Amino acid sequence: MSANVNVYECMFLFDTNKVAGNTTELANQVHAILAKHNAELIISRPWDDRKLAYGIKGQRKGLYYLIYIRIEGPNLAAIERDCILNENILRHLFIKIDPKLVDVMLALGREDRPVALQTVQEDPSGEDYFMEDDRGPRRGGGGGGGGGGRRYDSKD
Predict the structure, then answer these.
(1) Domains (ranges, CATH) in the chain?
(2) CA distance 24 to 7
(3) Cα–Cα distance for residue pair 7/68, rounded to 1 Å
(4) Residue (of 9, 1, 3) closest to 108 by Cα position
(5) Does the model's pTM come out above 0.90?
(6) pLDDT, tens only, 98-112
(7) 36-87 tens-digit pLDDT
(8) Cα(30)–Cα(12) distance, integer angstroms
(9) Residue 9 to residue 109: CA distance in whole angstroms
């Protein structure tokens, strides 16, 4: 491979009706697309199966599948074209990983579950962003109107 080889994080959204509990066949289809365009497969695994916020191609549920690949940049357009033509892939996303972050991202990609679900860290500054200040409570916070409807004055 030449000097413009990059590492990409690829997220695929599969139609769960076609997965039917067996992700191997769909993963093999994606792997074949990647191999056809000379992509080196680094990591490939199911990410999450969940309800979608809105319907995509008539589907309300989908399986997210995470793949990391190493490939020359110009070959990525051909892979995206093949993904669009595959009826089992509802959506896809390719993100170029900064070379300084490749090792960290690959380590995170091998984790069993998303890092965001593993830990919640406090703000290092120690500030509480939800404190009330001299302007009073924020809109929708349960006191002081601002949510529509009629406001009543003491004259009513």
Answers:
(1) 5-118 (3.30.70.60)
(2) 23
(3) 7
(4) 9
(5) no
(6) 888 888 887 777 776
(7) 999 999 888 888 888 888 888 878 888 888 899 999 888 899 999 999 998 8
(8) 9
(9) 9
